[in-house]
Specification:
The protein is α/β, with parallel strands linked by helices. The protein is built from four helices and 19 strands.
Length: 269
């Protein structure tokens, strides 16, 4: 039995852009997350509701639900429900959605299959359309960004962040060691090159470029060496930290197009 809702696995910044697009189109949206999300772009990630209970992104409220019934009450108010359900036991396995979108961005398939729903979509590399899922949405910036792929795979992950004003890897903050992540600054703060943004134990996390802190892990998390701990936008524009990116909107529109094509309400281009 299908339930009339869209389930999005993962509630990071790209997944949250997809959620906003679907909610605007009139769909009831539930997002599932792990117990301690490691999103860095927390101000535009509905995953933040796991920590804070609620978050408003682009005028849309996302609220934490402790059960599927509570999630349905939230979506019936026109809001987005977030539920801690890493294995799908509270949602996917028990309440089959009309649409399932794997937006965890792990870059490999951790068990998503065509049998999960009548329409199964995945974002980015690691999935094969026609085998693992019905459609894959391209997540690499460029002319194909956001395009649905109905047979084949998205562009492989390069491991190199998108170019912002000439900066790529330099924009990232990474944990220098295993340990507790303690923030010294917050998202939206202006930062100078070399400034300490956070500490992992006795090890400083320093900005490699000047700009504004666009993303940062939740204070107090235990982290492993090398994990992405934040990112810096190379301009002193705090507003970019609180806005869904054009990339996320484009991916969301591509996912919506794929759902309409696969459900027979829109023809292939």
């Amino acid at each position: 039995m299908n339930f009339d809702y869209v389930l999005i696995k993962g509630a990071g910044d790209l997944a949250s852009g997809v959620a906003c697009v679907f909610r605007e189109a009139g769909y009831r949206v539930v997002m599932s997350e792990i117990e301690q999300p490691t999103c860095v772009r927390r101000m535009v990630s509905f995953a933040e509701a796991v920590y804070e209970g609620e978050i408003c992104i682009e005028g849309v409220w996302g609220r934490l639900a402790d059960s599927f019934d509570k999630a349905m009450q939230i979506v019936d108010r026109g809001e987005i429900a977030v539920i801690v359900d890493p294995r799908g036991e509270k949602t996917l396995q028990k309440y089959r959605p009309s649409v399932f979108i794997d937006a965890a961005m792990i870059k490999k398939n951790m068990g998503t299959s065509l049998n999960d729903s009548d329409v199964v979509i995945a974002l980015g590399p690691g999935f094969e359309a026609g085998s693992d899922v019905h459609a894959v949405i391209e997540t690499k910036r460029g002319p194909a960004l956001g395009q649905p792929i109905y047979k084949g795979m998205a562009t492989p992950d390069t491991g190199i962040p998108g170019n912002k004003l000439g900066y790529t890897r330099e924009r990232l903050l990474r944990a220098p060691a295993d340990g507790r992540f303690d923030t010294k600054l917050k998202i939206g703060d202006i930062v100078k090159k070399g400034q300490v943004v956070a500490m992992v134990g006795s090890h400083p996390v320093r900005a490699q470029i000047a700009g504004v802190i666009r993303g940062l892990l939740k204070d107090g998390l235990m982290v492993n060496q090398g994990i992405k701990a934040g990112d810096i936008h190379p301009e002193e524009k705090p507003q970019v930290c609180f806005s869904v990116t054009d990339k996320a909107w484009t991916i969301g529109r591509g996912a919506l197009e794929a759902v309409r094509v696969l459900s027979g309400t829109q023809a292939y281009n």
